[in-house]
Write a structure and sequence with these properties.
- The chain is an alpha+beta fold and about 375 residues long.
- About 30% of the residues lie in helices and about 40% in strands.
- The protein is built from 3 helices and 21 strands.
- The strands form 4 sheets. A 6-stranded antiparallel beta sheet has the order 2-15-19-18-17-16, with no helix packed on it. A 6-stranded antiparallel beta barrel has the order 3-10-13-12-11-14. A 4-stranded antiparallel beta sheet has the order 7-6-4-9.
- A hairpin with a 2-residue loop joins strand 16 and strand 17.
- The longest helix is centred in the first third of the chain and has 55 residues.
Length: about 375
Amino acid sequence: MNSAFSFGSLLTKVNKRGWIMENKKNRIRFLMIGLMLLILGILGWRMLGQKQEEKKIQPYAVSTDRVRFIEKPAVKPLSGTVEGLTSSIISSRFSGQVTQVYVEDGQPVAKGQPLFLMDTVELENGVRIARNQVNQAEASYRKESKDYQRFLQLFQQGAYPRQQLDSQYAQMLSSQADLDSARANLSNAEKQLTEATVVSPVNGVVAHKALTHGQNVSSGSQVMTVEQMDAVYVVIHVEQKDMAFLKMGKPVDVTVDACPDRIFTGSMEVISPVAGKESRMFRVKLRVENPEQLLKPGMFVQVQLPLGQPRQVLSVPQKAVLGEKGVQYVFTEEEGKARKVRIKTGDLIDDRIEILEGADEGMVILTDNLDNIKEGDPVHLEESV
Protein backbone atom coordinates (compact mmCIF):
# COMPACT_ATOMS: atom_id res chain seq x y z
CA MET A 1 0.00 0.00 0.00
CA ASN A 2 2.75 2.43 0.92
CA SER A 3 4.80 1.38 -2.07
CA ALA A 4 1.93 2.11 -4.47
CA PHE A 5 1.39 5.53 -2.90
CA SER A 6 5.06 6.42 -3.12
CA PHE A 7 5.27 5.41 -6.74
CA GLY A 8 2.18 7.47 -7.65
CA SER A 9 3.56 10.53 -5.89
CA LEU A 10 6.84 10.13 -7.64
CA LEU A 11 5.12 9.88 -11.02
CA THR A 12 3.15 13.01 -10.29
CA LYS A 13 6.30 14.90 -9.38
CA VAL A 14 8.03 13.71 -12.54
CA ASN A 15 5.11 14.87 -14.72
CA LYS A 16 5.00 18.24 -12.97
CA ARG A 17 8.71 18.71 -13.42
CA GLY A 18 8.42 17.85 -17.09
CA TRP A 19 5.63 20.39 -17.55
CA ILE A 20 7.73 23.07 -15.90
CA MET A 21 10.68 22.22 -18.13
CA GLU A 22 8.49 22.36 -21.21
CA ASN A 23 7.02 25.71 -20.12
CA LYS A 24 10.51 27.12 -19.69
CA LYS A 25 11.47 25.98 -23.18
CA ASN A 26 8.38 27.71 -24.65
CA ARG A 27 9.26 30.92 -22.86
CA ILE A 28 12.76 30.81 -24.18
CA ARG A 29 11.45 30.10 -27.67
CA PHE A 30 9.09 33.11 -27.53
CA LEU A 31 11.80 35.34 -26.19
CA MET A 32 14.10 34.31 -29.03
CA ILE A 33 11.40 34.99 -31.61
CA GLY A 34 10.67 38.40 -30.12
CA LEU A 35 14.35 39.28 -30.02
CA MET A 36 14.75 38.29 -33.67
CA LEU A 37 11.74 40.42 -34.67
CA LEU A 38 13.19 43.37 -32.76
CA ILE A 39 16.55 42.97 -34.48
CA LEU A 40 14.88 42.70 -37.89
CA GLY A 41 12.82 45.85 -37.15
CA ILE A 42 15.91 47.82 -36.17
CA LEU A 43 17.74 46.65 -39.28
CA GLY A 44 14.76 47.57 -41.48
CA TRP A 45 14.45 51.02 -39.88
CA ARG A 46 18.15 51.65 -40.41
CA MET A 47 17.96 50.52 -44.03
CA LEU A 48 14.93 52.76 -44.64
CA GLY A 49 16.67 55.71 -43.01
CA GLN A 50 19.74 55.04 -45.10
CA LYS A 51 17.66 54.98 -48.28
CA GLN A 52 15.93 58.23 -47.31
CA GLU A 53 19.28 59.78 -46.52
CA GLU A 54 20.61 58.63 -49.86
CA LYS A 55 17.53 60.05 -51.53
CA LYS A 56 17.86 63.32 -49.61
CA ILE A 57 21.40 63.95 -50.63
CA GLN A 58 20.60 63.56 -54.32
CA PRO A 59 21.24 66.98 -55.91
CA TYR A 60 18.33 68.90 -57.48
CA ALA A 61 18.63 69.53 -61.20
CA VAL A 62 18.00 73.23 -61.76
CA SER A 63 18.04 75.74 -64.59
CA THR A 64 19.76 79.07 -64.07
CA ASP A 65 19.93 82.64 -65.26
CA ARG A 66 22.20 85.54 -64.35
CA VAL A 67 21.77 88.97 -62.88
CA ARG A 68 22.16 91.30 -65.85
CA PHE A 69 21.50 94.85 -66.95
CA ILE A 70 18.44 95.69 -69.06
CA GLU A 71 17.02 99.01 -70.22
CA LYS A 72 14.30 100.40 -68.00
CA PRO A 73 11.83 102.39 -70.18
CA ALA A 74 11.25 106.08 -69.58
CA VAL A 75 7.57 105.39 -68.87
CA LYS A 76 5.83 103.45 -66.16
CA PRO A 77 2.56 101.61 -66.91
CA LEU A 78 -0.20 102.36 -64.41
CA SER A 79 -3.90 101.61 -64.19
CA GLY A 80 -6.36 104.47 -63.86
CA THR A 81 -10.06 105.17 -63.52
CA VAL A 82 -12.17 107.61 -65.54
CA GLU A 83 -14.18 110.25 -63.68
CA GLY A 84 -16.44 112.95 -65.04
CA LEU A 85 -14.84 116.38 -65.21
CA THR A 86 -17.82 117.67 -63.24
CA SER A 87 -20.24 115.38 -61.47
CA SER A 88 -23.30 117.47 -60.64
CA ILE A 89 -25.60 116.04 -57.98
CA ILE A 90 -29.24 116.68 -58.89
CA SER A 91 -31.87 117.13 -56.19
CA SER A 92 -35.07 119.09 -55.52
CA ARG A 93 -34.95 122.32 -53.50
CA PHE A 94 -38.17 121.34 -51.72
CA SER A 95 -40.10 118.21 -50.79
CA GLY A 96 -43.00 117.01 -52.88
CA GLN A 97 -44.25 114.65 -55.57
CA VAL A 98 -42.62 114.16 -58.97
CA THR A 99 -45.15 114.64 -61.78
CA GLN A 100 -42.87 114.30 -64.83
CA VAL A 101 -39.45 112.70 -65.54
CA TYR A 102 -37.94 113.83 -68.84
CA VAL A 103 -34.64 111.89 -69.02
CA GLU A 104 -33.16 108.40 -68.68
CA ASP A 105 -29.74 107.05 -67.68
CA GLY A 106 -27.10 107.62 -70.36
CA GLN A 107 -29.06 110.37 -72.08
CA PRO A 108 -27.00 113.44 -73.09
CA VAL A 109 -28.42 116.73 -71.83
CA ALA A 110 -27.58 120.40 -72.40
CA LYS A 111 -27.17 123.06 -69.74
CA GLY A 112 -30.64 124.36 -68.79
CA GLN A 113 -32.50 121.32 -70.21
CA PRO A 114 -35.41 120.13 -67.97
CA LEU A 115 -34.75 116.89 -66.08
CA PHE A 116 -37.95 116.44 -64.04
CA LEU A 117 -40.95 118.40 -62.76
CA MET A 118 -42.32 118.61 -59.22
CA ASP A 119 -46.02 119.02 -58.34
CA THR A 120 -46.80 122.77 -58.67
CA VAL A 121 -50.32 123.10 -57.20
CA GLU A 122 -49.17 124.33 -53.78
CA LEU A 123 -46.47 126.47 -55.38
CA GLU A 124 -48.96 128.14 -57.72
CA ASN A 125 -51.26 128.82 -54.76
CA GLY A 126 -48.31 130.31 -52.91
CA VAL A 127 -47.61 132.64 -55.83
CA ARG A 128 -51.26 133.68 -55.95
CA ILE A 129 -51.34 134.45 -52.23
CA ALA A 130 -48.08 136.38 -52.42
CA ARG A 131 -49.35 138.42 -55.38
CA ASN A 132 -52.53 139.31 -53.48
CA GLN A 133 -50.42 140.45 -50.54
CA VAL A 134 -48.44 142.65 -52.88
CA ASN A 135 -51.62 144.19 -54.28
CA GLN A 136 -52.88 144.91 -50.78
CA ALA A 137 -49.57 146.41 -49.75
CA GLU A 138 -49.44 148.57 -52.88
CA ALA A 139 -52.95 149.89 -52.22
CA SER A 140 -52.09 150.65 -48.62
CA TYR A 141 -48.91 152.41 -49.63
CA ARG A 142 -50.68 154.53 -52.24
CA LYS A 143 -53.26 155.60 -49.66
CA GLU A 144 -50.65 156.48 -47.04
CA SER A 145 -48.54 158.30 -49.61
CA LYS A 146 -51.48 160.44 -50.77
CA ASP A 147 -52.42 161.20 -47.17
CA TYR A 148 -48.90 162.32 -46.44
CA GLN A 149 -48.83 164.61 -49.48
CA ARG A 150 -52.14 166.22 -48.41
CA PHE A 151 -50.99 166.70 -44.81
CA LEU A 152 -47.72 168.17 -46.07
CA GLN A 153 -49.60 170.84 -48.04
CA LEU A 154 -51.72 171.68 -44.99
CA PHE A 155 -48.62 171.86 -42.84
CA GLN A 156 -46.99 174.26 -45.29
CA GLN A 157 -50.11 176.46 -45.10
CA GLY A 158 -49.91 176.42 -41.32
CA ALA A 159 -53.11 174.43 -40.94
CA TYR A 160 -51.54 171.25 -39.68
CA PRO A 161 -49.19 170.64 -36.71
CA ARG A 162 -45.70 169.25 -37.20
CA GLN A 163 -46.27 166.31 -34.86
CA GLN A 164 -49.21 164.95 -36.88
CA LEU A 165 -47.23 165.36 -40.10
CA ASP A 166 -44.38 163.28 -38.67
CA SER A 167 -46.85 160.59 -37.58
CA GLN A 168 -48.32 160.42 -41.06
CA TYR A 169 -44.83 160.18 -42.54
CA ALA A 170 -44.04 157.20 -40.28
CA GLN A 171 -47.22 155.44 -41.40
CA MET A 172 -46.24 155.94 -45.03
CA LEU A 173 -42.76 154.45 -44.40
CA SER A 174 -44.33 151.47 -42.59
CA SER A 175 -46.65 150.75 -45.52
CA GLN A 176 -43.68 151.07 -47.87
CA ALA A 177 -41.79 148.45 -45.82
CA ASP A 178 -44.82 146.15 -45.93
CA LEU A 179 -44.88 146.53 -49.70
CA ASP A 180 -41.18 145.65 -49.98
CA SER A 181 -41.72 142.51 -47.82
CA ALA A 182 -44.73 141.46 -49.91
CA ARG A 183 -42.75 141.88 -53.12
CA ALA A 184 -39.87 139.79 -51.66
CA ASN A 185 -42.31 137.02 -50.69
CA LEU A 186 -43.75 137.07 -54.20
CA SER A 187 -40.26 136.82 -55.69
CA ASN A 188 -39.48 133.79 -53.50
CA ALA A 189 -42.76 132.12 -54.40
CA GLU A 190 -42.19 132.67 -58.12
CA LYS A 191 -38.62 131.36 -57.79
CA GLN A 192 -39.87 128.18 -56.09
CA LEU A 193 -42.44 127.73 -58.85
CA THR A 194 -39.69 128.09 -61.44
CA GLU A 195 -37.50 125.61 -59.55
CA ALA A 196 -40.27 123.02 -59.67
CA THR A 197 -38.80 122.30 -63.11
CA VAL A 198 -35.34 120.98 -62.27
CA VAL A 199 -32.82 121.60 -65.07
CA SER A 200 -29.31 120.41 -65.82
CA PRO A 201 -26.60 122.77 -64.53
CA VAL A 202 -24.04 121.61 -67.15
CA ASN A 203 -23.71 119.89 -70.50
CA GLY A 204 -23.31 116.21 -69.76
CA VAL A 205 -24.83 112.75 -69.50
CA VAL A 206 -27.45 111.56 -67.02
CA ALA A 207 -26.23 108.89 -64.58
CA HIS A 208 -27.46 107.11 -61.44
CA LYS A 209 -31.10 108.09 -62.00
CA ALA A 210 -33.20 107.01 -59.04
CA LEU A 211 -36.45 108.73 -59.87
CA THR A 212 -39.87 107.67 -61.20
CA HIS A 213 -43.14 109.38 -62.02
CA GLY A 214 -45.27 109.92 -58.89
CA GLN A 215 -42.38 109.43 -56.47
CA ASN A 216 -42.22 111.58 -53.35
CA VAL A 217 -38.80 113.12 -52.77
CA SER A 218 -37.32 115.02 -49.87
CA SER A 219 -35.63 118.38 -50.10
CA GLY A 220 -31.92 117.94 -50.93
CA SER A 221 -32.04 114.16 -51.54
CA GLN A 222 -29.95 113.02 -54.54
CA VAL A 223 -32.07 111.64 -57.37
CA MET A 224 -29.50 111.56 -60.24
CA THR A 225 -26.19 113.00 -61.41
CA VAL A 226 -25.14 114.74 -64.60
CA GLU A 227 -21.59 113.84 -65.62
CA GLN A 228 -19.76 116.39 -67.75
CA MET A 229 -18.03 114.24 -70.37
CA ASP A 230 -16.77 116.50 -73.14
CA ALA A 231 -13.62 116.29 -71.05
CA VAL A 232 -12.89 113.76 -68.29
CA TYR A 233 -10.41 113.09 -65.53
CA VAL A 234 -8.25 109.97 -65.46
CA VAL A 235 -7.28 109.29 -61.84
CA ILE A 236 -4.04 107.45 -61.06
CA HIS A 237 -2.04 106.82 -57.86
CA VAL A 238 1.69 107.49 -57.94
CA GLU A 239 4.40 106.24 -55.59
CA GLN A 240 6.57 108.67 -53.67
CA LYS A 241 9.72 107.76 -55.61
CA ASP A 242 8.07 108.84 -58.88
CA MET A 243 6.72 112.20 -57.67
CA ALA A 244 9.84 114.07 -58.87
CA PHE A 245 8.85 113.35 -62.49
CA LEU A 246 5.38 114.90 -62.21
CA LYS A 247 4.76 118.39 -63.62
CA MET A 248 1.55 120.30 -64.17
CA GLY A 249 0.50 120.26 -67.82
CA LYS A 250 2.85 117.39 -68.73
CA PRO A 251 1.36 115.23 -71.53
CA VAL A 252 0.53 111.59 -70.77
CA ASP A 253 -0.69 108.80 -73.10
CA VAL A 254 -3.88 106.99 -72.12
CA THR A 255 -5.37 103.83 -73.69
CA VAL A 256 -8.53 101.86 -73.02
CA ASP A 257 -9.55 98.33 -74.01
CA ALA A 258 -12.79 99.63 -75.54
CA CYS A 259 -10.74 101.54 -78.17
CA PRO A 260 -7.60 99.40 -78.68
CA ASP A 261 -6.36 101.40 -81.71
CA ARG A 262 -6.81 104.81 -80.10
CA ILE A 263 -4.32 106.74 -77.94
CA PHE A 264 -5.79 109.58 -75.90
CA THR A 265 -3.56 112.39 -74.71
CA GLY A 266 -4.06 113.75 -71.22
CA SER A 267 -2.31 116.43 -69.21
CA MET A 268 -1.56 116.58 -65.50
CA GLU A 269 -4.04 118.99 -63.96
CA VAL A 270 -4.35 117.98 -60.29
CA ILE A 271 -1.46 116.61 -58.18
CA SER A 272 -2.40 115.90 -54.58
CA PRO A 273 0.14 117.30 -52.11
CA VAL A 274 -0.75 114.68 -49.48
CA ALA A 275 -0.30 110.91 -49.69
CA GLY A 276 -3.14 108.53 -48.86
CA LYS A 277 -3.09 107.36 -45.24
CA GLU A 278 -3.30 103.66 -46.10
CA SER A 279 -1.68 103.35 -49.54
CA ARG A 280 0.96 106.09 -49.00
CA MET A 281 0.47 107.00 -52.65
CA PHE A 282 -0.37 110.33 -54.26
CA ARG A 283 -3.61 110.91 -56.18
CA VAL A 284 -3.07 112.52 -59.61
CA LYS A 285 -5.76 113.67 -62.08
CA LEU A 286 -5.10 113.82 -65.82
CA ARG A 287 -7.47 115.93 -67.91
CA VAL A 288 -8.36 114.21 -71.19
CA GLU A 289 -10.44 115.89 -73.89
CA ASN A 290 -13.34 113.61 -74.79
CA PRO A 291 -15.47 115.25 -77.50
CA GLU A 292 -16.71 111.89 -78.81
CA GLN A 293 -17.46 110.72 -75.26
CA LEU A 294 -15.60 107.45 -75.81
CA LEU A 295 -14.21 107.57 -72.28
CA LYS A 296 -16.96 107.05 -69.73
CA PRO A 297 -16.88 107.46 -65.94
CA GLY A 298 -16.00 104.20 -64.21
CA MET A 299 -13.89 102.81 -67.07
CA PHE A 300 -10.47 101.31 -66.32
CA VAL A 301 -7.68 102.70 -68.49
CA GLN A 302 -3.92 102.21 -68.92
CA VAL A 303 -1.61 105.17 -68.42
CA GLN A 304 2.01 105.48 -69.60
CA LEU A 305 3.50 107.75 -66.95
CA PRO A 306 6.69 109.47 -68.23
CA LEU A 307 9.64 109.11 -65.84
CA GLY A 308 12.51 110.92 -67.53
CA GLN A 309 15.16 109.14 -69.64
CA PRO A 310 15.59 105.37 -70.14
CA ARG A 311 18.35 103.86 -67.97
CA GLN A 312 20.17 100.60 -67.36
CA VAL A 313 19.12 98.60 -64.28
CA LEU A 314 20.04 95.18 -62.84
CA SER A 315 17.37 92.51 -63.24
CA VAL A 316 16.48 88.85 -62.71
CA PRO A 317 13.59 86.74 -64.05
CA GLN A 318 10.42 87.43 -62.13
CA LYS A 319 9.91 83.70 -61.49
CA ALA A 320 13.24 83.53 -59.63
CA VAL A 321 12.11 85.92 -56.89
CA LEU A 322 10.58 84.36 -53.77
CA GLY A 323 9.05 85.97 -50.72
CA GLU A 324 8.65 85.01 -47.08
CA LYS A 325 7.23 87.18 -44.27
CA GLY A 326 7.71 90.34 -46.30
CA VAL A 327 11.31 89.49 -47.24
CA GLN A 328 12.28 88.87 -50.88
CA TYR A 329 15.13 86.59 -51.88
CA VAL A 330 16.61 84.49 -54.69
CA PHE A 331 18.65 81.28 -54.67
CA THR A 332 22.18 81.19 -56.03
CA GLU A 333 24.71 78.31 -56.22
CA GLU A 334 27.81 78.12 -54.06
CA GLU A 335 30.10 75.04 -54.01
CA GLY A 336 27.34 72.88 -55.41
CA LYS A 337 24.75 73.95 -52.83
CA ALA A 338 21.81 76.33 -52.85
CA ARG A 339 22.32 79.59 -51.00
CA LYS A 340 19.59 82.08 -50.19
CA VAL A 341 20.34 85.73 -51.04
CA ARG A 342 18.13 88.52 -49.72
CA ILE A 343 17.29 91.23 -52.27
CA LYS A 344 15.22 94.38 -52.72
CA THR A 345 13.21 94.67 -55.93
CA GLY A 346 11.91 97.57 -58.00
CA ASP A 347 9.61 97.71 -61.02
CA LEU A 348 8.49 94.85 -63.24
CA ILE A 349 9.89 95.17 -66.77
CA ASP A 350 8.30 92.61 -69.10
CA ASP A 351 9.16 89.18 -67.56
CA ARG A 352 12.07 90.47 -65.48
CA ILE A 353 12.11 92.46 -62.28
CA GLU A 354 14.41 95.29 -61.31
CA ILE A 355 16.97 94.59 -58.55
CA LEU A 356 17.73 97.53 -56.28
CA GLU A 357 19.87 95.81 -53.64
CA GLY A 358 21.43 92.44 -52.77
CA ALA A 359 22.71 91.09 -56.12
CA ASP A 360 25.58 91.92 -58.46
CA GLU A 361 25.89 91.64 -62.22
CA GLY A 362 26.74 88.11 -63.38
CA MET A 363 25.51 86.32 -60.23
CA VAL A 364 24.05 82.89 -61.06
CA ILE A 365 20.36 82.67 -60.11
CA LEU A 366 18.33 79.45 -59.84
CA THR A 367 15.10 79.67 -61.81
CA ASP A 368 13.23 76.39 -61.29
CA ASN A 369 12.55 73.67 -58.69
CA LEU A 370 12.37 76.56 -56.22
CA ASP A 371 9.41 75.12 -54.28
CA ASN A 372 11.52 72.12 -53.26
CA ILE A 373 14.93 73.68 -52.66
CA LYS A 374 16.03 74.75 -49.20
CA GLU A 375 19.12 76.53 -47.95
CA GLY A 376 22.13 74.19 -48.26
CA ASP A 377 20.49 71.60 -50.55
CA PRO A 378 22.85 70.17 -53.21
CA VAL A 379 22.00 71.36 -56.72
CA HIS A 380 23.10 70.37 -60.19
CA LEU A 381 23.16 73.21 -62.72
CA GLU A 382 21.61 72.02 -65.97
CA GLU A 383 21.99 75.24 -67.87
CA SER A 384 23.67 78.57 -67.34
CA VAL A 385 22.80 81.67 -69.29
